[in-house]
Write a structure and sequence with these properties.
2 copies of one chain form a homodimer. Helices cover 35% and strands 19% of the residues of chain A. By secondary structure, the first copy, chain A, is an alpha+beta fold. In chain A, the strands form 4 sheets. In chain A, strands 12, 13, 14, 15, 16, 17, 18 and 19 form an 8-stranded antiparallel sheet that branches. In chain A, a hairpin with a 4-residue loop joins β5 and β6. The longest helix of chain A has 20 residues.
């Protein structure tokens, strides 16, 4: 990293003075109380920034980055702070650039696109689209809190992604501030382009390490007018996994297929429909959508038939739909209400490997004595094994998480399906991407941010895997309020 | 470019000897007759390579690139040679690496993915998927000839892209040979990943200038079991354009919406349905797909109603479907049979700007006396204005094409929607991407191919726009066979 030490008080002081000039004094946060929220995200990690700024425009963001770059001080972009991997935690101190004031939101219905500032809450974007009969599909569990800027930085997923794809599939235009402070405008309102490198895609999912995205243009799609929901239970986990793969291969194209394993079903047992088969190894919640009510319901019934479960419920009303979703949706809240600590992972495997992955997690639980329950987006192989543990078991968690990563990779998967690498998983990145893969990424980083100004200590490994993972574990979610927020996110 | 001159006979000779060692003598082409097909693509451009090689594996491709890099000789990857922008024409001579022998093709139905060597014909990939009830959606007009490797290099589109997206939306795994000859494996059979930079996306659409993709894993989707087709005619062009935007915004999600303007309708007048309204300014061919026959037909009827055209035909049988497509599909063949030369462009504009773009093309035609007819994929704003001209008008074509580019850019569009930049459009790239956009692309190029070994003289501008465009025009498709092939491509 070419960043300068801040031991020199005058460098820091001069930079802050300059930032006040750029964004105005009221938008520069310096006092410890005000800085509290900029120290952490939804993980246990934390680190104090030099200051936080809340620019009101792309030009102000550019000015801030240029000033910080000139001073050799790191810059960390921040959305709503809902990251589960330490993404926006300012590990190298420096300037936190909060994008919360960039809230431009315009739907262009004639072109079926929307333009949104990085600070727009993702659910608000989808609601604005809905007012025109349109939809912004990617729906991370945090989408009522997280911002489109944060979603773009992490290439967020969600439940609807099995049918509709992830954030990267929707971004067609972008304004990004480079490490130099220059403003680069990419793409526009165009849905199809084969002109030059896909630079825009490079910034998506780069977790603020290549540039700071201040505004995006996203594609919208027609909003389906009808939705139908079913719950299908399986006595054998293998049958559930095989059923998902079989149904997708047979031509069913559901809007969601969520899975809960035995452990997670135990947690939410009282939310299951009355009389639902007890002792199941897995439950799928399946949703179908479309414009014609009858055919949506028919498609769902055919899919349920093909899934061939041991207990099926098909919702006959929107009230019944909500009830079927209750078990899946209450998972996070139930966790929160428990006296135990928990740690939620985010791995993915090819869909045919889902039963094997869940089995491995169960074996790991049996071997370590840790309680590990798994929910996930089965349709794209994205599982969230969640480790529940007592204070005394803390030392086991790091090794267990590492084993989950290794198992996912062995099965052809990834250590992060929708949360990013951040600081929490960076030391495992090379296990997934290999030395050459990391070297290519590093060359790209050096080409776009030669001084290492943007979000240092993220994405790239700094130590061999295992040596440092979760070393700050003693600071584990000490604050009940932060525990509550975390429980509502990404699970 | 750091490439060495080949004036030294011994460098060239030694390299060829080394290539024979790597791929075997029978797969190295050196004689002028054998090299004929490697000199050109589907444009008028041509240039003789030092030699062509046809490696049989990724490892052989890697060996070839390493040997060429060591000798400082450029390498140009080649698929089926159907490029319409000079992409695979070896302008700096060097070694053409034909990927036609990389024909591995495996459908993994349980994971709804396929693995394909770069040399697999795209239609064959889709057929292999169809055998499992699956579909590979991107369908460039050339897909019966072009290869998946070429499609990936150019991020190809097609008619189904309005609903299903382009090539880049389907690639989830990749083997790529870097400029150093190292083999990088990216992704896998996983549908969702938020781990590290989106390096894979960078290679897609980079036209062989950042690496040579030898194998890909692509997502497949359930193949819709039913298709319904309609033709809708408009007396006023504006009504057609407005209708497309209105229907998409209102929740219709067609599998294709093709447009033919007045000029193109004149060319294919005898292919229109009997008694179809004469003197129309535009015709849309609309397709709807899905699993339930009745609801697919119903959706189409509702959409046709909303399009509110002046003459509508809805196919009642697959024979009628074929007949409705005949007008659109015969366009290329009709061009071929005409005594005139033609030049087909590939621009895109935001969908609401389609009528304005077509009007501007018509104004240009009136001003220059050139006959310009337009067909296109209206659903994503992708238009192919096609200039028909006599030998005596040749000097006008270059300026007319440049004006079409400028008009598309002025309307927020792109100079290439699905063909790439290649050599033919490189000098216009900066008009679209700006100096900073080009500089960022160049930094990426330099980071991944510092010696400029891979496909030189493509993508990046070498002269100011207009100075050189189409300068080789006198060589315009002299060969009737090549004219025939071109007519079947991309129109």
């Amino acid at each position: 990293m070419g960043t300068r030490s801040l031991s020199s008080r005058s460098v820091a002081g001069q930079l802050v003075d300059r930032l006040v000039e750029i964004v105005g004094g009221e938008w520069v946060v310096r006092d410890p109380e005000g800085l509290e929220e900029y120290r952490h995200d939804a993980t246990f990690m934390e680190s104090a920034p030099l200051c936080a700024v809340r620019p009101g425009s792309t030009e102000e963001v550019a000015g801030v980055v240029a000033a910080a770059a000139a001073a050799g001080v790191p810059v960390v972009a921040r959305g709503a702070g809902t990251s589960l991997v330490g993404g926006p935690v300012p590990l190298a101190a420096g300037v936190v650039v909060s994008l919360d004031r960039l809230t431009l939101l315009e739907v262009d219905a004639a072109n079926t696109v929307a333009t949104a500032g990085a600070g727009v809450i993702t659910a608000a974007l989808d609601e604005a689209a809905a007012a025109h009969g349109l939809m912004y599909p990617p729906d991370p569990a945090s989408y009522g809190m997280s911002t489109i800027g944060g979603n773009v930085a992490c290439n967020s997923g969600g439940m609807r992604c099995v049918k509709y794809g992830v954030t990267a599939d929707y971004v067609i235009g972008m304004t990004v501030v480079l490490a130099s402070g220059q403003v680069l405008r990419l793409g526009g309102k165009l849905r199809k382009r084969a002109s030059g490198y896909r630079t825009m895609q490079l910034f998506i999912g780069s977790e603020g390490t290549l540039g700071i995205v201040t505004e995006v243009v996203v594609k919208l799609i027609p909003r389906p007018r009808h939705v139908a929901t079913a719950m299908v239970g399986f006595r054998r986990l293998e049958d559930a996994g095989a059923a998902v793969a079989r149904a997708l291969a047979a031509g069913h194209f559901p809007a969601a297929i969520e899975i809960l394993d035995r452990g997670s079903l135990e947690l939410v047992a009282d939310k299951l429909p009355p009389g639902f088969e007890p002792g199941l190894e897995a439950v799928l919640v399946v949703e179908q959508d479309g414009n014609d009510e009858e055919s949506v319901q028919l498609d769902l019934m055919k899919m349920v038939e093909m899934l061939d479960g041991d207990d099926n419920r098909i919702a006959q009303s929107s009230l019944e739909r909500e009830r079927l979703w209750e078990a899946r949706r209450s998972f996070g809240k139930v966790l929160m209400a428990m006296p135990k600590n928990f740690f939620a992972e985010d791995v993915a495997v090819p869909i045919a490997e889902i039963p094997e992955m869940i089995r491995r997690v169960q074996t790991l639980a049996a071997r370590t004595g840790l309680r590990i329950v798994t929910v996930g987006h089965a349709g794209d192989g994205n599982l969230h094994p969640t480790i529940l543990f007592e204070d005394a078991q803390r030392d086991l968690v790091s090794g267990a998480a590492a084993q989950i990563f290794r198992d996912a990779l062995e099965l052809g998967g990834s250590i992060s399906a929708e949360h990013g690498l951040g600081a929490l998983k960076r030391d495992y990145a090379e296990l997934e991407h290999g030395a050459l893969g990391m070297a290519v990424m590093k060359r790209i980083k050096d080409a776009l941010d030669p001084a290492g100004i943007l979000n240092p200590h993220k994405v790239f490994p700094e130590q061999a895997a295992d040596d440092r993972f979760l070393e700050s574990m003693p600071g584990w979610l000490p604050d009940p309020e932060r525990r509550r927020r975390k429980a509502e996110l990404g699970l």
